[in-house]
Amino acid sequence: MSEQTVVSRAVIVLLLVLATPALVVAEPCDRQIEIRVNCVLAADTNRGLDEQLRPMGGQLRRLFRYSTYRLVSHQVDHASCGDGKAFTLPGGRVLHVDPQDVHDNTIRMELVLFQGERPVMTTDVKLLNHGLLIIGGARYEEGMLIISIEADVPAPPAPEGPVATPATKASKSSFAPSELVP
């Protein structure tokens, strides 16, 4: 066997050894993940909170100190792991959300925010199922653009066939209460 063949086999074995742990850690992600992306304009125009933002109004007010929060866009899409989705945002921005895996009620995703063709933010996040991630900072119109990202993995389908139901009556004791006292 030539020295080049031995080196080639060693490189292949090393690559397999390095790649294997990643395959063991990741869980299969065969369910569709619902991804919701909201864009909120935060400004000091004293117009209050948009009614559609009421569920996260408290969080917005705690994180950012503006007098107005207005929903600019709301988008919903579904993705499988490895199947990234692009969300068009105001101001020529595009957010790519790419779910990577789901493990212990946590969704790992890669996020890339583009301004035109140029990526301006790339990050990996772990978001609890049904969780909310809020990103703020981009200047937009008279204020700041806030992006909220929510992800939900539906519960696995119920097993088919008869379902066992718990007993509704408690069984009667076979001993008298006086037997409990020594």
Question: What labels would you give this structure?
Answer:
disordered C terminus; alpha+beta; single chain; 2 helices; disordered N terminus; five-stranded mixed β-sheet; 182 residues; four-stranded antiparallel β-sheet
Give your account of this protein's structure.
The protein has helices at residues 3-25, 57-63; strands spanning 33-43, 48-49, 68-79, 85-89, 93-103, 106-115, 118-128, 131-140, 143-152. It has 182 residues and is of the alpha+beta class. It has a domain at 27-152. The protein is globular.
Query: C-alpha Rg, in Å?
Result: 26 Å
CA-to-CA gap between the ends? 83 Å
Low-confidence stretches: 2-26, 168-182
Structural class, by secondary structure, is alpha+beta
Number of DSSP strand runs: 9
Shape: globular
* Largest β-sheet summary: 5 strands, mixed
Write down the overall mean pLDDT.
78
In N-to-C order, the SSE pattern is HEEHEEEEEEE
Query: What fraction strand?
Result: over 45%
Order of strands, widest sheet: 2-3-1-9-8
Q: How much helical structure, as a percent, in the residues?
A: 10-25%
In short:
The protein contains 2 helices and 9 strands, in the order αββαβββββββ. By secondary structure, it is an alpha+beta fold.
